[in-house]
């Protein structure tokens, strides 16, 4: 048994939290051991209860605060600490930015082990509240009660809820009264649907047995004023249409009202039919005079204004003059490809999801962009020597992979391709750093720009420019 495993659960008293590290956890060192702590801030002095013991580290939660950190601020949400979102509300925004910047620098140096220039100051989010354009809520017939609610014997709580998952629990949903992430009428729509369903005795879903009627609610708001609502139900039922009629009448600003029948083991519906019940089967976002069509299955950056700043950085790093052939890898709905097309000779986008490629082509069409083309398929298979021979060796590669980063075969293709410049946009600096280490044999990192797209969370985007050695 390791030394760490022998520590009594209540052994740590009056410990000062010293630092904040990846994934929003804080750090303290005790007797040469690393302890990761949640729910605290650097400068807090706390008693700790060990919750997990590993060979090289411990995990703990605070049981008592002897002193609160000067970095703390008052959380603005009544659900803070329970729903699992916005875990940094108790820390001032300037401090959040400082630690996100530090996270990028530390990660690139520790994992990437490559030479990097001075990291540019992190770009902050244009909005700190109501910045998301998409939220997903879950119905549950047996909502999660907080400790305060359990102790409150004066009130009986309706367990039929519509809200968010509690941390690390797929089957526990906490009811949400007001969420500060998405602008109105998001909260109004959610509460109206919840109350209608309660009053009309509609069956809220059982997440374990996957029974009931109501499963999931998705609300998408756009900077054009367009508004999409998607209701997921486990099965067809005569009560669905009256509910949708009620919502459409109560919220006339809805421009796209849809429903999905989903009895699968998960809530994804990319392989299911989405029925457009009222309005158009899409909404539009705008960016720098471009219109982007967003359907129920479309991916679009969830912070619209933050995405605009992110894409401007990527375009600036690309150094386009109008003569370049650009490859846009993991192009999604072609947002970046179409965004940079006016400054490039030609843009070739590649994406795994066929529906996203269809969206990308539509987005080029509605903006009269004629110098783009899009291809669907697994990146490591599509990006072959034959593909490059057919379409040409790019002058610039822009890559914006998912959190897992790029497949090693894709990295190898980039090394073989030897484009003069690669712009790497990442939502996960850890996997980005891993890929940078692989690219280091042929490329030098010349610019690094962190971007905050998700205030009050530990998530940070990062844009890196690599130039051929």
From TrEMBL:
Presence of the UniProt keyword Transferase in the record: yes
Active site residues per record: 427 (nucleophile), 427
Pfam families listed in its UniProt record: TRAM, tRNA_U5-meth_tr
Keyword annotations from UniProtKB, A to Z: Methyltransferase, S-adenosyl-L-methionine, Transferase
Residues the record lists as binding S-adenosyl-L-methionine: 301, 330, 351, 400
Keyword Glycoprotein attributed: no
InterPro entries, sorted: MeTrfase_TrmA_AS, MeTrfase_TrmA_CS, NA-bd_OB-fold, SAM-dependent_MTases_sf, TRAM_dom, U5_MeTrfase_fam
SUPFAM superfamilies membership: Nucleic acid-binding proteins (SSF50249), S-adenosyl-L-methionine-dependent methyltransferases (SSF53335)
Chain ranges of the TRAM domain: 5-64
Family: Belongs to the class I-like SAM-binding methyltransferase superfamily. RNA M5U methyltransferase family.
Protein name: 23S rRNA (Uracil-5-)-methyltransferase RumA
């Amino acid at each position: 048994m390791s030394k760490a495993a022998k520590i009594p659960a209540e052994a740590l008293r009056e410990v000062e939290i010293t630092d904040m590290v990846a994934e929003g956890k804080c750090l303290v060192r005790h007797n040469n051991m690393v302890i990761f702590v949640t729910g605290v801030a650097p400068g807090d002095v706390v008693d700790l209860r060990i919750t997990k013991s590993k060979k090289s580290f411990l995990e703990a939660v605070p049981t008592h605060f002897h002193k609160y950190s000067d970095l703390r601020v008052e959380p603005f949400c009544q659900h803070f600490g329970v729903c699992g979102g916005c875990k940094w509300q108790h820390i001032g925004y300037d401090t959040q930015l400082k630690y996100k910047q530090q996270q990028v620098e530390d990660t690139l140096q520790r994992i990437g082990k490559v030479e990097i220039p001075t990291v540019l100051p992190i770009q902050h989010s244009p909005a700190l509240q109501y910045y998301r354009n998409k939220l997903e809520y879950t119905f549950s017939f047996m909502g999660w009660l907080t400790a305060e609610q359990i102790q409150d014997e004066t009130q009986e709580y309706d367990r039929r809820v519509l809200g968010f998952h509690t941390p690390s629990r797929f089957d526990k949903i906490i009811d949400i009264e007001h969420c500060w992430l998405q602008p109105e009428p998001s909260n109004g729509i959610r509460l109206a649907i919840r109350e209608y369903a309660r009053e009309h005795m509609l069956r809220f879903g059982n997440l374990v047995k996957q029974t009931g009627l109501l499963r999931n609610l998705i609300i998408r708001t756009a900077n054009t004023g367009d508004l999409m609502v998607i209701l997921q139900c486990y099965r067809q039922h005569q009560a669905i249409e009256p509910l949708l009629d009620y919502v459409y009448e109560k919220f006339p600003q809805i421009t796209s009202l849809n429903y999905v029948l989903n009895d699968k083991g998960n809530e994804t519906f990319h392989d299911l039919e989405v029925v457009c019940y009222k309005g158009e089967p899409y909404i539009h976002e705008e960016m720098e005079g471009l219109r982007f069509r967003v359907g129920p299955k479309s991916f679009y950056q969830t912070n619209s204004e933050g995405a605009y700043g992110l894409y401007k950085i990527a375009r600036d790093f690309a150094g386009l003059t109008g003569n370049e052939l650009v490859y846009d890898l993991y192009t999604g709905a072609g947002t970046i490809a179409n965004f940079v097309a006016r400054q490039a000779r030609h843009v070739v986008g590649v994406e795994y999801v066929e529906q996203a490629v269809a969206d990308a082509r539509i987005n080029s069409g509605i903006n009269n962009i004629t110098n783009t083309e899009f291809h669907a398929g697994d990146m490591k298979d599509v990006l072959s020597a034959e593909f490059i021979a057919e379409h040409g060796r790019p002058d610039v590669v822009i890559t914006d992979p998912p959190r897992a980063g790029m497949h090693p075969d894709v990295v190898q293709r980039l090394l073989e391709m030897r484009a003069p410049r690669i712009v790497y946009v990442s939502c996960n600096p850890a996997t980005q750093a891993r890929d940078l280490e692989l690219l280091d044999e042929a490329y030098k990192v010349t610019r690094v720009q962190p971007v905050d797209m998700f205030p009050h969370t530990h998530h940070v985007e990062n844009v890196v420019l690599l130039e051929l050695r």
